[in-house]
């Protein structure tokens, strides 16, 4: 069998020899599954070894047995990605060489390359070759960049249309100052998604930069169009911090929002303008308040009483170093929640006058139990019925307690 | 400036600490004795075994068939320098290992395995694969430190040589072509799996030899 240990002829051994004697003295009782060992010399050689091909091309590969191997060409067969190739595509080119013809290849099944393997009749692997079949890369597109607080630059892009090249594609973001200097290469990738890069420092202000992305794979290179920008044109900042939303006294239809300006504001010669958005708890429609200006507080009016609202604030640096241009809006701050007060006259307050009166609470509990039923498979006892029963019991015990005259 | 000096001292201390071989003494369970550390190390090998199953599945899918087929068992080409330390050992030899030798074998093996794992092509593959690989390497590093901790608490010196080997030996053992590299990667994962099976047995054996003093301590802690 092809996997037995054999004496090897040193002149045919590409790697330093490990003699069979050493292998034979290997211990006889392993405590784990035994490994099958094969001679130090490669039993066969495939040509071409690890080729790169365009989709649709054809290939003739050959498997040549090592001279001291007892097999012949007719003892061999081929597989591609584990699937046996039809014998009709084989041809014996000599006593110890078998070829296979592959026509109109599809893109590689995996980016690590298709596995073309030459086997001996009993299934043993004699040699293998990785086929890289694909397309050259497309030009990357849609390069957008932004600078956080004028300190750095982050850019993102999209791969060219089509996308799938079947080959691993490397992206390199490059940049240089417009009229001088050499090309620089961005080093920190994937900071804002797969196709992104971050330049942390050594950026000059008041000067245009040329930025582009190079995509390369085994079949070629594609360069995006050059984007020209000045760092000051793409400035954004962190969202405002410490967003507080609170009631305005007893007013049912108002909430007051306060926040701190982002810390970077103090360091630079820019002003900030803000925007607020808010929504009711169970709606996905945001209402935007645009005319907040550069204040760090605002009052929302015309709200619904007794409702929970989610509020977010974001910031835009403008008038950077005196220019009239606005920057890029920051991300929204984390949502802050608050509720408007509800007038006492609405029926159903805190006294359990009857199960049906406290509709909001009951409805919420119904939703909660529904959720619990869905997620806590075993708790079939819970339910709105149980809650109602408890309420009934509460009323009865309330009456009883009053009759008996117990102290609170 | 005074703040400058304290930063300087702090940085120097960090550098000094980082250059020491694996610091086992940082494991505060040392006070509870070797017994606790051995149990923890055992648990860690089981956890790694579990993690490896997912990692290997993902990586072998990346290599593509036949590497990800369940019955795949290719010939193993023996090369000049055994690329990966083998867990396979004669049964009688294994039984007769001293505690020190047993622990040292584990320590050396995982240090080497970690080094080779880090070489697994981190450039290619999906982000998910790179992530899993990084996570696994971090856990494996934890295992190496844990074994070091057990050795120190039992008073054994750590095996000579770098605790965390640098980016592997260049050139010589590198696979001559991409297909052979895939085979190497396959065998690396297999050997890792075998070592984790073996380590569970090793640490089980060590658990039974915990000194009585430590056992008393644990009983007291449970309020007996």
TrEMBL record, chain A:
Q: Which SMART domains match?
A: FN3
Give the span(s) annotated as Disordered.
1-43, 335-356
Q: Does the keyword Disulfide bond apply?
A: yes
Q: Which keywords belong to this entry?
A: Disulfide bond, Glycoprotein, Immunoglobulin domain, Membrane, Phosphoprotein, Receptor, Repeat, Secreted, Signal, Transmembrane, Transmembrane helix
Polar residues bias spans: 1-29
* One Gene Ontology term from the biological process aspect of the record: negative regulation of neuron apoptotic process
Which region is the signal sequence?
A: none
Q: Which InterPro entries match?
A: FN3_dom, FN3_sf, Growth/epo_recpt_lig-bind, Ig-like_dom, Ig-like_dom_sf, Ig-like_fold
The family annotation for this protein states: Belongs to the type I cytokine receptor family. Type 3 subfamily.
What name does UniProt use for this protein? Answer: Cytokine receptor-like factor 1
Species per Swiss-Prot/TrEMBL record: Emberiza fucata
Q: What is this organism's lineage? A: Eukaryota, Metazoa, Chordata, Craniata, Vertebrata
**By which gene is this protein encoded?**
Crlf1
Automatic annotation (TrEMBL), chain B:
Where does the protein end up?
A: Secreted
Q: What is its main location?
A: secreted
Residues of the signal sequence?
Answer: 1-25
Q: Please verify whether the record's keywords include Transmembrane helix.
A: no
Q: Name one GO cellular component term.
A: extracellular space
Which GO molecular function annotations are given, in alphabetical order?
cytokine activity
User: Which keywords does this Swiss-Prot/TrEMBL entry list?
Assistant: Cytokine, Glycoprotein, Secreted, Signal
Q: Which GO terms describe its biological process?
A: cell surface receptor signaling pathway via JAK-STAT; positive regulation of B cell proliferation
UniProt record similarity statement: Belongs to the IL-6 superfamily.
Q: What is this protein called?
A: Cardiotrophin-like cytokine factor 1
**Organism in which the protein naturally occurs:** Emberiza fucata
Q: What lineage does the source organism belong to? A: Eukaryota, Metazoa, Chordata, Craniata, Vertebrata
Q: Which gene encodes it?
A: Clcf1
């Amino acid at each position: 069998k092809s996997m037995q240990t054999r004496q090897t002829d040193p002149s045919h051994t590409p790697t330093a020899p490990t003699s069979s004697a050493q292998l034979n003295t290997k211990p006889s009782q392993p405590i784990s599954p035994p490994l099958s060992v094969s001679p130090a010399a490669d039993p066969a050689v495939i040509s071409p070894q690890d080729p790169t091909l365009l989709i649709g091309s054809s290939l003739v590969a050959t498997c040549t047995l090592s001279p001291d191997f007892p097999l012949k060409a007719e003892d061999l067969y081929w597989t591609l990605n584990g699937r046996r190739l039809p014998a009709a595509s084989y041809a014996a080119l000599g006593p110890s060489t078998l070829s296979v013809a592959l026509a109109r290849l599809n893109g590689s099944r995996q980016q690590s390359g298709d596995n073309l393997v030459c086997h001996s009749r009993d299934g043993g692997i004699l040699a293998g070759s990785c086929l890289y079949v694909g397309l050259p890369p497309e030009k990357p597109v849609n390069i957008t960049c932004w600078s956080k607080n004028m300190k750095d630059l982050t850019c993102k892009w999209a791969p060219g249309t089509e996308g799938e090249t079947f080959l691993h594609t490397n992206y390199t973001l490059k940049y240089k100052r417009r009229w001088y200097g050499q090309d620089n290469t961005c080093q920190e990738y994937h900071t804002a998604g797969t196709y992104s890069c971050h330049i942390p420092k050594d950026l000059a202000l008041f000067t245009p930069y040329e930025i582009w992305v190079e995509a390369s794979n085994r079949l070629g290179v594609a360069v995006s169009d050059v984007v020209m920008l000045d760092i000051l044109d793409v400035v954004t900042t962190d969202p405002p911090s410490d967003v507080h939303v609170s009631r305005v006294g007893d007013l049912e239809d108002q909430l007051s929002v306060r926040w701190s300006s982002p810390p970077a504001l103090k360091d630079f010669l820019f002003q900030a303008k803000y925007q607020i958005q808010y929504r009711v708890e169970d709606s996905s429609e945001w209402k935007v308040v645009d005319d907040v200006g550069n204040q760090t507080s605002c009052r929302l009016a015309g709200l619904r009483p007794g409702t929970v609202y989610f509020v977010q604030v974001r910031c835009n640096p403008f008038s950077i170093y005196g220019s009239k241009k606005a920057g890029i809006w920051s991300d929204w701050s984390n949502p802050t929640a608050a509720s408007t007060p509800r007038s006492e006259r609405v029926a159903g307050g805190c006294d359990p006058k009857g199960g049906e009166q406290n509709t909001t609470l009951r409805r919420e509990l119904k939703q909660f139990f529904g959720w619990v039923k869905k997620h806590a498979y075993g708790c079939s006892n819970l339910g709105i019925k149980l809650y109602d029963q408890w309420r009934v019991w509460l009323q009865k015990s309330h009456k009883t307690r009053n009759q008996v005259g117990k102290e609170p | 400036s005074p703040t400058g000096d304290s930063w300087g001292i702090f940085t120097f201390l960090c550098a000094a600490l980082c250059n020491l071989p694996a610091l086992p003494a940082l494991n505060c369970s040392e006070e509870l004795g070797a017994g606790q550390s051995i149990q923890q190390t055992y648990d860690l090998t089981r956890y790694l075994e579990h993690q490896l199953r997912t990692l290997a599945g993902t990586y072998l899918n990346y290599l593509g068939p036949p590497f990800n087929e369940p019955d795949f068992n290719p010939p193993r080409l023996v090369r000049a320098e055994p690329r990966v330390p083998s867990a396979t050992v004669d049964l009688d030899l294994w039984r007769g290992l001293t505690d020190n030798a047993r622990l040292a074998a584990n320590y050396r093996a995982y240090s080497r395995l970690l080094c080779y794992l880090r070489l697994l092509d981190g450039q290619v593959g999906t982000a998910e694969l790179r992530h899993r690989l990084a996570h696994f390497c971090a856990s494996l590093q934890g295992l190496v430190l844990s074994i070091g901790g057990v050795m120190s608490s039992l008073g054994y010196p750590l095996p000579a040589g770098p605790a965390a080997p640098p980016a592997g030996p260049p050139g010589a053992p590198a696979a001559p072509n991409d297909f052979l590299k895939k085979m190497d990667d396959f065998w690396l994962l297999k050997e890792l799996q075998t070592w984790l099976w073996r380590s569970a047995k090793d640490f089980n054996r060590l658990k039974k030899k915990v000194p009585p003093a430590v056992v008393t301590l644990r009983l007291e802690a449970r309020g007996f």
